[in-house]
Design brief:
By secondary structure, the chain is α+β, with helices and mostly antiparallel strands. The protein contains five helices and eleven strands. The chain folds into two domains: 27 residues; 145 residues, CheA-289, Domain 4 (OB fold (Dihydrolipoamide Acetyltransferase, E2P), Beta Barrel), CATH 2.40.50.180. The chain has a six-stranded mixed β-sheet with strand order 8-1-2-11-10-9, with no helix packed on it. The protein has a five-stranded mixed β-sheet with strand order 3-6-7-5-4.
C-alpha cells in the first residue's frame, strides 16, 4: 500500500504532464492569467427590488426562514431571533437597516441567509433565492455612488451582471462591523 506523500507526488506528476501535453498541442490556446484567476462562487438573492450576490465563503446558512421570535424595544429593522441548531441568530430586514423608503413595508419573504464574519453572524430575510454563479474578480464591476445614490458603496463596492440583472456584491466584513449594526441603540 502506498503512503500519502507518494500519492501526492503521483498526482503532481500527472498534473504537470497533462499541462505539458496541453501546451505542446496548442489545444484551446489557454491564457494562463485566466486559468490562474480565482473563481468566487456567489449565492444570488433578492430583497425587494435589491438584487444581492453573497460569496458562499461568507455564508453559514441559506434556505427557508425558521419561525422568528419577535423581541420588544428593538428597531423595526431587527425582526427578531431564530434558533438554528441551538444557536440564536438575529434576523434583520436589510431595506429597513439601510433606511430605504421604497421598502417601507420591509421584507416579508420566507427565505433567509446567515452571513458570517469571524464569530459574528446575522440573518438577512429574503424575498427569494435566485441561484448560484461562479465569477472571477475581472467579472465584477465597481459601483459608484453616482450609479444609485441610495446605494452605500462601503457595503456594496462591486456588482455582477447576470442575465441582464445587476447583483450588488455584499461586503460581509464591512456590513457586520458597521457601527449601526453593532451598537444600534446609540446609532439610531
Amino acid at each position: 500500500m502506498s503512503s500519502s506523500p507518494d500519492l501526492y507526488t503521483l498526482i503532481e506528476k500527472i498534473d504537470s504532464e497533462l499541462l505539458e501535453v496541453v501546451h505542446a498541442s496548442g489545444a484551446a490556446n489557454i491564457d494562463e492569467t485566466v486559468t490562474q484567476e480565482k473563481l468566487t462562487k456567489y449565492v444570488l438573492v433578492a430583497v425587494g427590488a435589491l438584487h444581492l450576490a453573497v460569496a458562499i465563503e461568507d455564508l453559514s446558512e441559506v434556505g427557508p426562514l425558521p419561525t422568528i421570535t419577535f423581541l420588544p424595544n428593538l428597531p423595526l429593522w431587527i425582526q427578531g431571533i431564530v434558533n438554528i441548531r441551538g444557536e440564536i441568530i438575529s434576523v434583520i430586514d436589510l431595506a429597513g437597516f439601510r433606511r430605504l423608503s421604497d421598502q417601507a413595508g420591509g421584507c416579508v419573504g420566507n427565505r433567509f441567509v446567515v452571513v458570517q464574519y469571524g464569530k459574528q453572524k446575522i440573518g438577512i430575510r429574503l424575498d427569494r433565492i435566485v441561484g448560484t454563479v461562479s465569477r472571477t474578480d475581472a467579472d465584477t464591476k465597481p459601483l459608484h455612488s453616482s450609479n444609485n445614490n441610495s446605494m452605500d458603496t462601503s457595503f456594496f463596492p462591486a456588482g455582477l451582471l447576470v442575465d441582464n440583472t445587476l447583483y450588488h456584491i455584499l461586503n460581509v466584513r464591512r456590513f457586520l462591523t458597521a457601527p449601526r449594526l453593532i451598537d444600534f441603540r446609540n446609532n439610531e
